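Example for tutorial group B:
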C-alpha cells in the first residue's frame, strides 16, 4: 500500500491539511521522513515531545509496562496512576489528581468541577465563566466555547451558556466583568495559540485577588506551559500566583496521550462518585510513561538548562533579525517562544514555516503573525545552533522572495 499524502485525502476527514512530509523515525531532536531526509525538530509535536523522540527513559517505561498491564477500568486502580499522582501532588500546590487523555478533557473536567463546586457552595445563580480573547482550551464544545477564538467555536449551533471573554492583560476590563455570579476564571499563565503572550505581574496578581474577592475559582490551563516548558515545573511557580485548579497534558506524557486536572482536597470533594469519569483516564500504560517523563523533567538541572537554552534561542534569533529585519520581538518564556513578524511580513508566518520545512527544520506558528518554537526541553545546544542556521536560510528565502 502506498502510504503517501494522497492517501490522506482519500481516507481522512479533511479537518487537517498536513505537509507532504511523512516522518517515519525520530531520535532526540532529529526526525527522518520516508525519503530519508533529516529534519531538526523545533516543534516538539506542539510542545508535547518534552524529551524529544524515543528518549530511553520513555521507551523503557513503555516497554516494561507494556509487558505487564495496559488497561483496567476505573472500577480498580493501578500502581502507575497512584505513583504519578503522588509525584504530581508532592511537586505542586495540589492534593488531588484526576486523570484524562488530553488537555481538552482535563479542561472539561476543570470547568465541570468549577460549576459543581459553585452550585454546591453558593447556589444555582453562580455559573458565569470568564476567559480571555485569543485563549485556547481545547476542542470539546464546552472548552472551545470557553476558548476565546470564535473561528473555532462558531458554526456548531447553540453554545454552552454563561461564558464571557475579555482581553488578556487588561485588568480594568476583567474587573468590570467579574462579579459574585462568576464561578470560575480560566486562563493560560502564558497564552500559547493566541501568540505566545506572557501575563504582566499586575494582571496575573490582580486576577487572583479579584477571584478571591468574588469567591471565583481560578483555573490555570497549563496544557502547553506545564511540565518544564517555561523553566519552572509549572508556569504558576514563576508567577507568585497559585491557582485553585490546574490542568496539564501535552508534555506530561512526553508524546503518550495523557492529561490531568489537579486541585485541592476541599474543591476536589465536589466531584463525588459518579459525577465525572473517563474510560482510559489513568490507564497504567499512559501513567507509566508519564511518570518517567515527569521524573526526568522534574530535576533542577534540566529546568535550569531550559533557561540556558531559551537564551541560546533568543541570541540566535536576534542575530538573524539584525541581518534580515523581520521580527519586532521574541516573546515567551523558557522553550515556549514566539518570533513576532513586523509589518513588512504581516500575516506571513506560514511562509516561514513552509520555507523552514524545505531547509530541514520543523517549526510552528501561533496565529498568522508569530513563528512558534517549542522544541524538546533537552535539545542539545548544537542542535539549536544547527536548527537556527537552517532557520536563517528559510528567513533569507522569504525575505528574498
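The residue assignment follows.
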Amino acid at each position: 500500500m502506498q502510504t503517501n499524502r494522497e492517501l490522506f485525502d482519500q481516507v481522512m476527514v479533511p479537518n487537517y491539511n498536513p505537509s507532504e512530509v511523512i516522518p517515519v523515525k525520530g531520535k532526540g531532536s532529529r526526525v527522518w521522513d520516508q525519503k530519508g531526509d533529516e529534519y531538526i525538530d523545533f516543534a516538539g509535536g506542539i510542545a508535547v515531545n518534552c524529551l524529544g523522540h524515543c528518549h530511553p527513559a520513555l521507551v523503557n517505561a513503555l516497554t516494561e509496562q507494556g509487558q505487564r498491564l495496559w488497561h483496567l477500568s476505573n472500577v480498580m486502580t493501578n500502581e502507575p496512576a497512584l505513583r504519578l499522582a503522588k509525584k504530581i501532588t508532592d511537586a505542586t500546590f495540589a492534593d488531588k489528581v484526576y486523570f484524562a487523555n488530553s488537555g481538552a478533557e482535563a479542561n472539561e473536567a476543570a470547568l465541570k468541577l468549577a460549576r459543581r463546586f459553585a452550585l454546591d457552595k453558593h447556589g444555582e445563580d453562580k455559573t458565569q465563566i470568564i476567559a480571555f480573547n485569543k485563549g485556547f482550551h481545547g476542542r470539546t464544545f464546552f472548552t472551545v466555547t470557553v476558548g476565546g477564538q470564535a473561528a473555532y467555536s462558531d458554526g456548531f449551533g447553540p453554545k454552552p451558556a454563561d461564558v464571557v471573554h475579555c482581553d488578556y492583560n487588561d485588568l480594568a476590563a476583567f474587573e468590570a466583568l467579574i462579579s459574585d455570579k462568576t464561578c470560575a476564571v480560566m486562563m493560560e499563565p502564558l497564552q500559547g495559540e493566541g501568540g505566545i503572550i506572557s501575563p504582566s505581574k499586575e494582571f496575573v496578581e490582580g486576577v487572583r485577588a479579584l477571584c478571591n474577592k468574588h469567591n471565583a475559582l481560578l483555573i490555570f490551563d497549563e496544557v502547553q506551559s506545564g511540565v518544564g516548558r517555561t523553566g519552572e515545573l509549572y508556569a504558576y511557580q514563576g508567577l507568585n500566583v497559585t491557582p485553585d485548579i490546574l490542568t496539564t497534558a501535552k508534555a506530561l506524557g512526553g508524546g503518550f496521550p495523557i492529561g490531568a486536572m489537579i486541585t485541592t482536597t476541599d474543591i476536589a470533594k465536589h466531584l463525588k462518585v459518579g459525577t465525572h469519569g473517563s474510560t482510559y483516564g489513568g490507564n497504567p500504560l499512559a501513567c507509566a510513561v508519564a511518570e518517567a517523563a515527569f521524573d526526568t523533567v522534574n530535576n533542577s538541572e534540566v529546568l535550569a538548562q531550559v533557561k540556558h537554552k531559551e537564551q541560546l534561542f533568543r541570541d540566535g534569533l536576534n542575530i538573524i533579525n539584525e541581518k534580515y529585519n523581520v521580527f519586532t520581538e521574541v516573546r515567551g518564556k523558557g522553550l515556549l517562544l514566539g518570533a513576532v513578524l513586523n509589518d513588512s511580513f504581516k500575516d506571513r508566518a506560514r511562509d516561514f514555516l513552509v520555507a523552514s520545512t524545505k531547509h530541514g527544520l520543523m517549526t510552528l506558528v501561533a496565529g498568522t503573525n508569530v513563528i512558534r518554537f517549542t522544541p524538546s526541553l533537552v535539545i542539545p545546544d548544537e542542535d539549536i545552533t544547527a536548527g537556527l542556521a537552517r532557520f536563517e536560510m528559510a528567513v533569507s528565502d522569504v525575505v528574498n522572495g
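The domain at 5-54+300-399 is CATH 3.90.1150.10 (Aspartate Aminotransferase, domain 1). Compare this with the pattern of hydrophobic and polar residues in the output above.
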